[in-house]
Batch of 4 targets.
Target 1
Amino acid sequence: MSLQAPSDIVMIRPHAFRSNPETSGDNAFQVAGDGPEIAARALAEFDTAVETLRNAGVTVHVFDDFGDRDTPDSVFPNNWFSTHAGGHVAIYPMFAENRRRERRWDVIDMLKRAYRVQDVIDYSGLELDGLALEGTGAMVLDHIGRVAYVARSRRADPVLLERFCTHFSFEPMAFDAADEAGRAIYHTNVLMGIGTDFALIGLSLITDPVRRREVADRLAETGRAVIDLTPAQIAAFAGNAIELEGERRLLALSARALEALRPDQIAVIERSARLLPLSVPTIETAGGSVRCMIAGIHLSRRAVSKSERIAA
């Protein structure tokens, strides 16, 4: 098993999916869209993605969002909580007001029941001070090398980043990143994804050439193959992928992302992971893709007691 690749995940089924107007200002990947037909397509894409992941041996905990609290981005739960080896859970402050309503304690209660949770550190109250750190969207975490890579944005407050890294023993590595039109990258996980033996990253989007080299070197120091993605590949969500452990090690990414990868890049990935494409074109109109849909569980499972086995 790899520290980087969780075998268990949380996903939120969106019953009232739509593009979020409160996040469109800084999310250049987002396309406006609303209505029952769009919601129905997103729901079907979600259910097929869950089935594909489960068939590949991944344990998927699904929670339904019935759309009664105006949570258009609920399908992206990795932004409001994360889990960490040793039994630690973090809950994050969100930038957009309607995204704050995505936090739900039934998810945390499930984690406490099914996994060994030592503590829950809740940063969400810092929203009152105008601070945001949107989980593993804002941070791409190297769980092996203990580095938190962060593209600077209003969704990744530097003071809160330092606090998180102190609490969870990560080294912060922040940088500025922008697309070809000069628009800042809103979440780091659309720019890069880290696996056990490789890293996907759009290096050319890191604006400072010195910092660009430092980031590439830091990734290579861990023995990973650095797969440099073009701006067009980043726009196709090729960086928004997550390594998982199923029947074997997997790289979950969207079908669109896989189509954007070159054969030589695919060959590097397939040396250590099987590519698992998921077709989510409607969900991608909200400005996120497969990695955003998946909250990995980096916790140890609890042993099932005799009484629990009888009840089951």
Note: The radius of gyration is 18 Å.
Target 2
Amino acid sequence: MADQLQPPLTRIQQKNRDRILKGALSVFSTSGFRGATIDQIAEAAGLSKPNVLYYFASKDDIHKSLLTTLLDMWLAPMIRINPEGEPLEEVMAYVRAKLEMSRRFPRESRLFAYEILQGAPHLTEILGGGLRDIVDRAATILQGWMDQGRLSPVDPHHLIFSIWALTQHYADFDVQVRAVLGPGHDPFVEAGPFLDNLYRTMLHV
């Protein structure tokens, strides 16, 4: 017999699910995956343990769902790259969006980075499929602009990697960056003009 489609979540169910993921983010960010427990997640979410297990079968299920949600969020600005837009401005909009996400969601960025450093055990299928497809699409757009002489020619995949590295560094190594800069500095405000100048110089034709 074919599997029945799951009915959409009610507003209350979606609210509870979001509470669990928010609580899980707090717990995983401080205790790591191995140190986190369902009890801790339930307490952080303000729900009972049975209530948490009603929405998610296990800690692993919560972790994978959280990471998948985060990956969707990270990839959204890349999906918005418009092949009909002005090439340099499309790239700069992507850089600014990634930097702003690092500013607004530092815990999420660090959690995702930690998962990758562990070999991405919860994201293997996604990284080899959906992520690659989206990155390849963006790289194809970038290569097309370069072939048209509208951007300076560089390897498009490594251009994307560099944007990830330079923007997410400010979230993943926030303590180090602030220690080096010292009091009175806002790393994200100061990084914006630097990255803008860097990529405009690199890609301008």
Note: The mean pLDDT is 90.
Target 3
Amino acid sequence: MTASRFRIGIAGLEPGRSWAARAHVPALRALSDSFEIAGAANTSLESAQRAAAEIGLPKAYTNVAELVADAEVDIVAVTVKVSHHFEIAKAAIEAGKHVYCEWPLGNGLAEAEEIAALAKAKGVLGVVGTQARVAPEIQYLKQLIVDGFVGEVLSTTLVARGGGWGGIVPDKKNGAYLLDNASGATMLTIPVGHTLAGLTEVLGPIAQLSSVLATRRTAAVVAGTGETLPVTTADQVLVSGVLVSGAPISVHYVGGMPRDGAGLLWEINGTQGDIRVKGPFGHAQLVPLTIEAARGDEKAFQRLEVPASYLGGLPSDPAHGNVARNYARMARDLRDGTRTAPTFDDAVLLHRVIAAIETAATHSIEP
């Protein structure tokens, strides 16, 4: 494709509320040389018209079917709930559109595999929103490891707070969605999945694992109303295993927010030093990360500043800046035939890790 700007239609855009409004719109506008937002489609024409008017888009589509049928739309951005990813992505691909789909790609491995296979068969580019992989801190950290900054990596440990899933939800609608294990939008699939995408970008894939998934809070309270909602998804996720490199890995996610704003600690232990990555909570894809290191005989960790070149001239705010970096890679891939953005095939590999965690959690051994 040689278009000077790619026209993109967004499925699922609610001003002031949705992830598309918070991240995709500012990300695309930061890339105005590469992208033009053609319009939006929501569950109703009225909703799409409100979104288009408030955000300043040229068109409100009657529905998603009209959006994917628009001959002037090159890319469909799928930013709706996980349960609708499959149907919208499939319709867009069958219409010959390239697709940017939020993570998770599908509600489970089977849906992800089918979508990825269809995109390959139709010859369209499918990009998945695992944008932690392209975050400046992650890319800089990856280069440090490649350069042998800490020598051979011996092991890695990550402990984080999931952000949600802590017993209190802001509203009933989204709370019921996130607390239902069948929704596909859980602590395991969202913050753990995003962060594992970043971790394996730096240290390589996981070769084998064991896991524990526990639902310690079986009910959550809706803030402001006191209503109680059932919880069927895990609020404790523990994963241990070995990377392909041979380095042991340990990950523990806890539901809820940290008390002190320190909700992510990722340590990498090497033969010549140690690295610590810190963040306010466990959504590595949308929080600012800091990197500290100590090598040799050093007793104190020193902060490492990410070189400005890793920002790529894009917004430093990680919420939409990292989405912009993913879109920038997508534009480059479409123009040059490269594959630098996380693809649907990459999403399938991550879905397989999630599925392996779920399966491993069902096999316990009594001492």
Note: The two ends are 59 Å apart (CA to CA).
Target 4
Amino acid sequence: MTQTTAESPIRKQRAQLNVRTLRTDRWWLTPALTFAGLMSFLIYGIWAILDKSYFAEPYIAPFSSPCLATSCPEGARFLGLAPFGDWYTLPPGLLILGLPGGFRLTCYYYRKSYYRSFWLSPPACAVSEPHTKYSGETRLPLIIQNVHRYFFYLAVVIGAILAYDAVLAFRDEHGNWGHVGLGTLILLANAVLIFCYTLGCHSCRHITAGRLNHFSKHPLRYKAWTFVSKLNARHQQFAWASMYSVMIADLYVRLVAKGVINFPFA
């Protein structure tokens, strides 16, 4: 059989584009806003980790929880424990930074966000990227993104700790239950959004029932999978909402600790 060369005329007729894209809308707006949003989180996170005003009874700033060293105020220590003892004197947030940070950094949605906004790979649909090669996530360093499923388990622990902190926020500075301040509500809302984002993770959906062949034989797992799937459908929204809720909650506690916010029911 003779080989046809039917592709040759087609190739010659292809339009030779000398522009990056033919799109006339503001395609650059989304990656620009995404870049600004993620940068604000990074800048705030660096400041918060180094800031020492992270505890105002009964509130503890989320970026510094859990507090696991004796250098932490007694009321801020997680479960009253200090397993890292006296030798650790650095900011408490550095101890747990890699757990929620690693979970968000390797999250499928965030990967898409910073690939497009920071690396322009690609910046938007139907817009060419400046890179000449593409290897995906098959080699270092991006192959490390595959550890996301393991960060999920650690993120669940951090989410549980933040929920525990929100429960403790219902106490007053004397340890009496029944206190409800603005900080209580902020920490509670943050804990809910953190769990919605964490449980809506694609890895959670797969772990819940992603490998089942017969849902009918596993009704409880099917119900859990259905619930997680609903959260997963809004994973992008929960990613942004929880990112800003944890910043707002953290900043609020620090402002109370610094005395900047000081009013009844704070």
Note: The radius of gyration is 24 Å.
